[in-house]
Amino acid sequence: MFLEILLFVFLGIAFGIVTGLIPGLHPNTIFTLIFSLAFLFTGLPVQLILAFVVSLAVSNTFFDFIPTILFGAPEEDSVLSVLPGHKLLLKGRGYEAIFLVTMGGLGVMLLTVFSLPALFFFLPLIYTTIKPVIHIILLSVVAWMVYTERKPLHALSVFILAGIFGLLTLNSFPSEEVMFPALTGLFGMSTVLVSVMTRVKIPPQKIQKEVQGDWLKGSVTGWLAGLLAGLLPGIGSSQAGIIASQFLRAKLREFLIALGGINTSNIFFTFIVFYVIGKTRSGAVWMISQIIDYFTLADVYLLIVVGILTSLISGLLTIKASKFLLNRMRNINYTRMMSFIFLGLITLVFVFSGLIGLLVSITGMFLGLLAISIGIKRTHLMGFLLLPTIAYFSGLNPLFFGILW
């Protein structure tokens, strides 16, 4: 059985590489496809399927950052790294950005494993305590974001516009159809288009032997935010990342460490939440829940071992792949490459989401260009997710739509 489990772990990592490196291709797509072909897996031990699902989900959280940081093509889980990660790339420190998010993923994975005994006991209490006040926490974060901005009125306006955009699209279409095109437009296409129009040149990239950072602060931040994202419905990695960065005042390096950690810990937490309180919080857990009704303690042990092994292998491969790509980028016309990426993003949006997705993406792109042109932090564009989340948890959805319609 050990060799079979190992084989399915490597198979999951291979799929994780594919979903991580191709923008718009999410692990949930693979899980849905697999479930539709469930007859092919009839008779397979549950442990093998669990190993495959966990390794795919965990490895994707590492490789997902490569296209985001190097090319500005984000997914929902890595969208915030476009901002500091791409900034470091333009300073010749792209390797540093990828190293920080990778080490963040590994650090938070270890923290999660060591904290498991306490989590089994405290998770139900944390869940019942936080859920009624999550909209107040989010409103406080938004208020602080706007207050600390150099142009608070401009920031508030962009946040509200992005929030209205999110309310209209997320409540009019299935989220899986608009999430990729909207975030691609807000962060990816706007970033890439500015690079093309200003003819940005990527400086020679430094491959440091040693990268500095407050590893403990960043890892703890990512752990806390990942716990929040894994525990509460409607709170994704992006919302949790904003909460963590604002409340803990994480600096650029610590922010990247935390972002890397949020995604990895979120995967662990969603499985633990399923075991402790029976709630489904991710596509990976949904896939498993279709096969078994509940986890046994033995399944949890397998999850931990597979998660650790996958994290170590994926972390090493991510760093190796980033070195390879960064060394090749110095010989490439970056403006031309970004032009092809811009066209590629439009094509991917159309393939995955059709004409509606293309319209959503272009709308998001103009909002992103607006934020760039007036000189405010593009984190305010996360109003696209934050305002609908606040409306959901506060019970004000009917009021918002009464005003909008």
Can you characterise this structure?
This protein is mainly alpha-helical and 405 residues long. It has one domain (2-202, 214-404). The chain is built from 18 helices and no strands. Helix 13 (252-277) packs antiparallel against helix 15. The longest helix has 41 residues, at 334-374. It is globular, with a radius of gyration of 20 Å. The mean pLDDT is 78.
How many distinct beta strands?
A: 0
Order of helices and strands: HHHHHHHHHHHHHHHHHH
Bin the helical content. Answer: over 70%
Structural class label: mainly alpha
Cα-to-Cα separation, first versus last residue: 58 Å
Write the layout of secondary structure elements.
Elements (H helix, E strand, L loop, with lengths): L1 H20 L5 H10 L9 H18 L1 H7 L10 H8 L4 H21 L1 H15 L3 H14 L4 H21 L2 H23 L17 H17 L5 H12 L3 H26 L5 H7 L7 H33 L4 H41 L8 H12 L2 H8 L1
Features:
405 residues, mainly alpha
Report a brief summary of the structure.
The chain is built from 18 helices and no strands. It has helices at 2-21, 27-36, 46-63, 65-71, 82-89, 94-114, 116-130, 134-147, 152-172, 175-197, 215-231, 237-248, 252-277, 283-289, 297-329, 334-374, 383-394, 397-404.
